[in-house]
Amino acid sequence: MEGRKTKNRASPLSLEQFVSLMSPLIDLEKEAEISASITSGASRNLDTAQKKGSTILNLKCVDAQTGLMGKTLLEFQSTKADVLPPHKFGTHDVVVLRPNKADLGSPALGQGVVYRLKDSSITVAFDDVPEEGLNSPLRLEKVANEVTYRRMKDALIQLSKGVQKGPASDLVPVLFGDRLPTLSKKEITFKPFNSNLDHSQKDAISKALSSKNVFLLHGPPGTGKTTTVVEIILQEVKRGSKILACAASNIAVDNIVERLVPHSSYPQTSFRVNCNITTSSFRVKLVRLGHPARLLPQVLESALDAQVLRGDNSALANDIRKEMKTLSGKLLKAKDKNTRREIQKELRALSKEERKRQQLAVTDVIKNADVVLTTLTGAFSRKLDNTLFDLVIIDEAAQALEIACWMALLKGSRCILAGDHLQLPPTIQSVEAENKGLGRTLFERLADLYGDEIMSMLTVQYRMHELIMNWSSKELYNSKIKAHPCVAAHMLYDLEDVERLSSTEPTLLLIDIAGCDMEEKKDEEDSTLNEGEAEVAMAHAKRLVQSGVQASDIGIITPYAAQVVLLKMLKSNDDKLKGLEISTVDGFQGREKEAIIISMVRSNSKKEVGFLSDRRRMNVAVTRARRQCCLVCDTDTVTSNGFLKRLVEYFEEHGEYLSGSEYLNV
Ligand SMILES: Nc1ncnc2c1ncn2[C@@H]1O[C@H](COP(=O)(O)OP(=O)(O)OP(=O)(O)O)[C@@H](O)[C@H]1O
Rounded to two decimals, what is the model's pTM? Predict the structure, then answer.
């Protein structure tokens, strides 16, 4: 089937169309990110910037630590209160440090990466310690990460110009529908490293191994997508492939690294032991690229910087640096012009040699690795400029921009994308870029273009009670998902120390606030919230905790940011709820809890449901729950939408029903 044009398919997007569509959309998205940061016109005033959450004023440096591969960790607390003011900083964000009152755009004391965030402090990893100014009041500003946009633009240029000769020259025509994908003719059998794989996982792995250019691993919630990706990597290494394994987020990359470490050739400090994995004499050489502040502590041993430090070239570079230090001392003392010139010449030569050794140290590690793991942006770093891969694997591909995927895909001749296009796509800041298609993922585009020809779906899930799963399976996955017996009937009261009470008994619970006088409202930033509903959701969380459920096993999720703020305020009044997590649905994708409470917020006479009607958002919300899912909503409002009506009816039929005001009065 190779070499033919695609026929009878939805007309594919051509490479030229893709390039001309994406280029302005990347600019729009970059502008949107910059305008959310402090340097934009809208937030030129420092107080406004703090209100917007893009800067934290009045900080003092309370701790400095070295380590973390040469980085310096500085911890900051507020000079005004025990907790930091509300902000929008997240771990891994790029930030700059300035004196508290310094003008906007004045020279920074340093630039770093957020390493740790607590309510009371923020820790930032700097390459160099700021030399002075740390004893005065300080401020941190969040800056737009322009590297990613620059690299996406460069990838687009490479894609449009040079792919005919590059490693991806065979892949590009297939991914743009000019040539059909091919599979190996004979079925590939393999001996699994993980003895517990189910039939759908084995089937998908076999198909992935026989794909010659592209394969989609479709992993609905809790079906072991990453488990399957890890097995594919091991099988491919065994066959001699050199692999680039990526994901959009650092945490998703580390998830893979963590599971590969038991098979790796490094000193194994700490990792999650999985007793189903056969650790034979087979060893994988892996390297994780990325800023150490962005990596999980348990994967640091496999980080590039750690391996470079262990290498011979690094030791040589170290010796050279010592020699340079001695020479610099001599230079300071030397009076004679000729001697000084000689020393300077020698220093220049040594500095060149030192840089060469450093680069060689990096190249050696990458050249010897079977698997290089990094984020999609990291895949386009100069360190990988001359490295080609037999296979590029992208996990969470349905949450990555297509152009971001290309930063990795341009390095290889074959690819496997793992994800679920029926969960939420990547978050786009620019509404215009979103409407024009920036968020359409490669995974979704290929699923539409080739469908089952190149795709395999995992069909056994290991998270949810089957009542929680059945709704999602029927609505989104053609009723193909089955619950594994180890979870199919698990109950909240099966957990240690949890009593069997009316609060812990139901698997599905619908608390209806219709007719309870709990109308939605808007906050200053036009996000929607519902005070009555928040109280009901919190009351259920409290009741679960009283029944013995750990607060950290419960999550309250809601589509609206303002409702998150309100719920967090209610939670802060109660010490027993300390571990309870509250998040937007989007922020909870990829996570799970024993009990999930969904606050749907919308309650209005016009019966408007806004973005609740996005099937993917409710799919993510419901499928975060392992043993109990509680839906709090105004059924009068939400049932105006057909999809949500079926959700409510499903809960009514298979779960317990309670009215909101009744619930508050129990
Ligand atoms: N074949 C299996 N047998 C037993 N448990 C399994 C199997 N496959 C996966 N699991 C378990 O299911 C859980 C989810 O697996 P994994 O993290 O690989 O799933 P995922 O699909 O990547 O998750 P998500 O839904 O968050 O994307 C893990 O606890 C894993 O150990």
Answer: 0.84
